[in-house]
Design a protein that fits this description.
Number of strands: 15
Mean pLDDT: 96
Helix content: 40-55%
Distance between the termini: 35 Å
Structural class: alpha/beta
Bound molecules: 1,4-dihydronicotinamide adenine dinucleotide
Number of domains: 2
Number of helices: 14
Order of helices and strands: HEEEHHEEEEHEHEHHEHEHEEHEHEHHH
Largest sheet: 9 strands, mixed
Shape: globular
CATH architecture of the largest domain: 3-Layer(aba) Sandwich
Length: 441
């Protein structure tokens, strides 16, 4: 029996909120009605705060009753529980607003690093938009994988937040004029999740500007923020890692005359391509959006362009995935013809658990290709976000630069050296290094 999607079942019952909390091997489900359908979320943070949302008829159902109410979605719920068990996730929360057509899922992997950190937010990660018609399970898989990576990325970046991601199924949110009810509702979901976030795919830095100016201080990475969009620092961190791999593998950080294949020329891919060209590399690129390629060519000069399905398997020195996640599975790994894989894309391996990641990393290593988890070097965006959060009046890139160099450059060197010494993959070592801090057995 396929059953209903979870969000449909929640909405059909006139409920707004689902919380699924994992404690060891067991789960605790609760369902709630937390606001009236007619509440004007345009007034959020001005007329009412996160715990004052008008609700004439609140409802809270405990585990047994909630499971009864959600019986029609039991298969989907069972699948969600097994994904959370495999990934080691702590909690998933859905806030669904039927009238606004917004379903916001908070995918919390671990809150350990954020406990008692002195801020409103105790976990951090991006907010990503999915189209309303996408299958719920695909949205959940994406969010759970990204949330899991955030625990490790925050630990690697040395910032005091647990790992979490928010996925939002919604039509694009208008900014001119601003769609205040939807923006206010998103801000409420962010605040209610004790979550510090920044725009990921499907949400723009301009949207972060509007949210931050009017609705919530728990979003960073806007174009008007003190440090600007996070793409540029993220690209710098990736570039430092690439130079370090070159030094380790080829005996020199000089990339002149080498060949890079870059997948995606967006907020990170373009500034990274800029670094690579300035370092003397020849580029082959792919992007699903021809306008991005045209912009890169007009700024950086001639470059070879291939179709998105070819970029992963062209012969090159560096493959740099800077678009979607999940690009490295068994088939694509076997087809690789590069010497190293370093790019910004989150969750480059198509895996749902640490064990699966380690297995794919072994396969990459067996091909003689240097690879380490993306979360060890695409960390500068989250560092910049935390810098703006912690120092709203005098955020500075100079302050994060030493940490960026230590984590992305020195951290890469140390992972590669230990891998060479022990015969294990950098992936296995990277996980081992942060596991204790995250109290993962
Ligand atoms: P973006 O949305 O600005 O750029 C992505 C680019 O990839 C776009 O130009 C898009 O057209 C292209 N693209 C999409 N699918 C593609 C495909 N199948 N083949 C080739 N190109 C494709 O996103 P952004 O911010 O540059 O992020 C890129 C990756 O880096 C994402 O995985 C993101 O989660 C990750 N990341 C981004 C950070 C940031 O600060 N922006 C920080 C850390 C990770």
């Amino acid at each position: 029996m396929r059953g209903r999607e979870i969000n449909e079942a929640v909405i059909r019952r006139g409920l707004t909120t689902l919380e699924l909390l994992r404690a060891g091997a067991s789960f605790r489900l609760s369902l709630r009605r937390e606001w009236d359908e007619g509440v004007d979320f345009a007034g959020y943070a001005r007329d009412f705060s996160v715990d004052q949302v008008p609700c004439a008829d609140p409802i809270a159902l405990g585990d047994e009753e909630a499971r009864g109410v959600l019986a029609e979605a039991a298969p989907a719920l069972g699948r969600l529980e097994s994904l959370m068990r495999a990934g080691g996730h702590e909690m998933v929360v859905l806030r669904a607003h039927a009238g606004l057509g917004v379903r916001a899922w908070l995918h919390v992997h671990s809150s350990v690093l954020g406990r008692n950190n002195g801020y409103h937010a105790i976990r951090a990660g991006g907010i990503r938009r999915h189209e309303p018609g996408e299958r719920e399970e695909a949205v959940l898989v994406d969010g759970l994988n990204l949330g899991r990576a955030m625990s490790f990325k925050n630990a690697a970046a040395e910032i005091p937040f647990g790992g979490c991601k928010m996925t939002v199924q919604s039509a694009p949110v208008a900014l001119a004029p601003p769609d205040e009810p939807r923006l206010g509702f998103l801000a409420y979901c962010i605040d209610a999740g004790h979550f510090m976030t920044g725009p990921d795919m499907g949400f723009s830095p301009q949207l972060a500007d509007v949210l931050r100016a009017r609705f919530t201080r728990n979003i960073l990475g806007g174009s008007r923020g003190a440090l600007g969009p996070t793409g540029a620092p993220t690209a710098l961190g990736c570039f430092l890692a690439i130079q370090e791999v070159a030094r380790w593998k080829w005996g020199s950080a000089d990339l002149g005359g080498r060949h890079a294949a870059v997948q995606g020329l967006g907020a990170v891919g373009l500034p990274l391509a800029r670094h690579l060209v300035e370092a003397g590399m020849r580029l082959t690129v792919a992007d699903t959006d021809p306008a991005r390629i045209a912009a890169a060519q007009s700024e950086l000069g001639a470059m070879e362009v291939v179709s998105p399905d070819r970029i992963l398997s062209i012969p090159c020195d560096l493959l740099s995935p800077c678009a979607i996640g999940g690009v490295l599975d068994e088939a694509s790994i076997d087809a690789l013809r590069c010497e190293m894989i370093y790019g910004s894309a989150n969750n480059q391996l198509r895996a749902f658990s640490e064990e699966e990641e380690k297995r794919l990393a072994e396969r990459i290593a067996a091909r003689g290709i240097v690879y380490q988890p993306d979360w060890t070097h695409n960390t500068a965006g989250v560092m910049a976000g935390f810098e703006e959060y912690a120092h709203p009046d005098d955020a500075s890139l100079e302050r994060i630069l030493p940490r960026l160099e230590r984590v992305c450059r020195d951290g890469t060197r140390s992972l590669l050296e230990e891998a060479a010494r022990t015969g294990r993959t950098p992936t296995a070592i990277a996980y081992e290094r942060v596991r204790e801090r995250l109290r993962i057995p």
